[in-house]
Amino acid sequence: MENFQRDLERKRVKKEPGENIKKKWSLLFISSRGKTFNLRYIRALSFVVLFCFVFFLGIAIISLTSFIFLKKDNTYLKESLEKADLQIIELKNENEQLKIKLAFLKPPASLVELKESVEKNKVVKKEEVKVEKIKDFSKIPLEARNFRVKNLNSQVETSFDIVNVSKSDLTLSGYIFVLLNNERLSENHWMVSPYSKISGAKPLNPKSGQYFSIQRFKPVTIKFPGISSTGVLDCADIFVYGEDGELLLKKGFSLNES
Predict the structure, then answer these.
(1) Domain boundaries 111-254, corresponding CATH code
(2) Could you give the C-alpha distances from 40 to 23, 45, 198, in angstroms and in order?
(3) Which tens digits make up the pLDDT trace of 149-168?
(4) Which of 10, 112, 148, 160 has the highest CB neighbour number within 10 Å of its CB?
């Protein structure tokens, strides 16, 4: 009987010609009483667990690599941003220095103020009454008083009074300049308003000044657009010319005292 069972087992295990036998493995548990437990799907479960482990390990490696590259990119961007901020600060400082140099070399004239000055001159000429004008200007001595200077955000404003100190009521008209200067600096760094070239410490073209007409008293305001302070210029000279270009008055004021 036992030989017969063994022969049957051999025939079951024996490989027949042309037949492929698939090798399978399983986990078998046997109790103390001889009862067996066969776990058929343990191999598939092991493959699933191994696949999940490899999959999540790959995701972790890819995430870590991406984080490292992003961190490097952020560091590079941060350094670039800091360099850009430093360049902006340097450009602002350079811009301020260029504005100061430009203000000293050639103060820009405001088109609006020039237009207003021309319109005022036209109105004054239209409203002029035919009065007798004096030809010998030396007979009407003038005086400049109460000089004041204000440093505003976008301009420097000077104001003063032109006074006829004689007893004559004859009308005197001409042109006025204010020249800001410093004896320790060359004329190229001085400023004059209204704008005119400077030669020999005075405006070169007298008739380009601010027009005025006076009998007894005249308040005058002259502005220097484009600058916020007089800087190192510590003196202001007032020039008053007649209509024929003759110098009637030159008087200096210290800006430190005004």
Answers:
(1) 2.60.40
(2) 13, 10, 109
(3) 988 888 888 999 988 887 77
(4) 160
